Amino acid sequence: MANLPKIGMRLHGGLSAKHCIEMAQVADINGFASLWFAENPFNRGVLPAVTGAVLATKNITVGVGCFNPYNRHPTLIAMEMGALDELAEGRTALGIGSGIADRIGRMGLSYAKPLSAVRDAITVVRGMMHGDSVTHEGAVFPVKNAKLEFAAPRPDYPIYMAAMGEKAVTLSGEIADGLMISNMCPPGYTVGAVERMRAGAAAVGRAAPATVVQYVQCAVAKDRAAARNAVKLSMGKMLAEYWALGERSQVYRDSMFSQSGIPDHDFIAAVNRLKAGDNPVDVLDDRFVDAYSISGNIDDYLAGVARFAQAGVTELVVTFVGHNPVDDIQYLGDVLKGQKR
What we know:
- This protein is α/β, with parallel strands linked by helices.
- The protein has 14 helices and 11 strands.
- Strand 7, helix 6 and strand 8 form a beta-alpha-beta unit.
- The model has no long low-confidence stretch (mean pLDDT 94).
């Protein structure tokens, strides 16, 4: 098991801070390597839950994945993450991405240059965390003499980049310390993304980032059928929405569907049945479950983790979708502890 990725857990603004803190404690006790908090505009801001998780845990890394620089100016990201890392005694992690275009637009902000915005953000945050006085003539977020008035605990603070399209993934190799890949991206996509990230790093003469974090849906239990059905129910709610995005955007189609191994006509048939109200348990077969989740019993879990490891993932962050996530976490606890032996 030594070659398997680290295992983390994804939490998000759709959950109350209190619930997130309770889940964080259970994950910490059961040997998870990390927590990652996803934040999107108009849902709960994650900092209350993140701060509570830091204070309620002892060993687990607590990450924000991701902040976007439209919600929080890059200087504010540096201020908050510097203070949070101080509180956590070096147990935090940070991902920065461009956010969701539609939601940024609803904030009244221009989304004309998302990659420039992320480049500016990573440049500014990295410099400020290093203790520098940053002057940056950014295309979206220029700053002048921006400097923290306290010393961040880790001057070499790593910053990961959430990326999906080819240009964004290439940029992650050029400027970030790691790549973050979203839910609903199959291992086939990850293989190509890792290759593009490494090519981006090589093009600017730097070592390729060693960290690849990927989010994936998960349900693991002794009752294999119940776990896989739980994932089908969750996936059924998402699939039609994501397929519609793929019809409008080549980026979504390439990242979420083209490398799944499932023909388009089968996707269309499944989406049409879901829209008609058919039960996802009946609609979605094993191809969908295995491409977009890790679910079933412990053997299924190990096989699923191995698929993503072979694709290049170094940290697999699971979103528990079953009815009893605490039971799922505890069920995995012995396996995770065994990986560390």
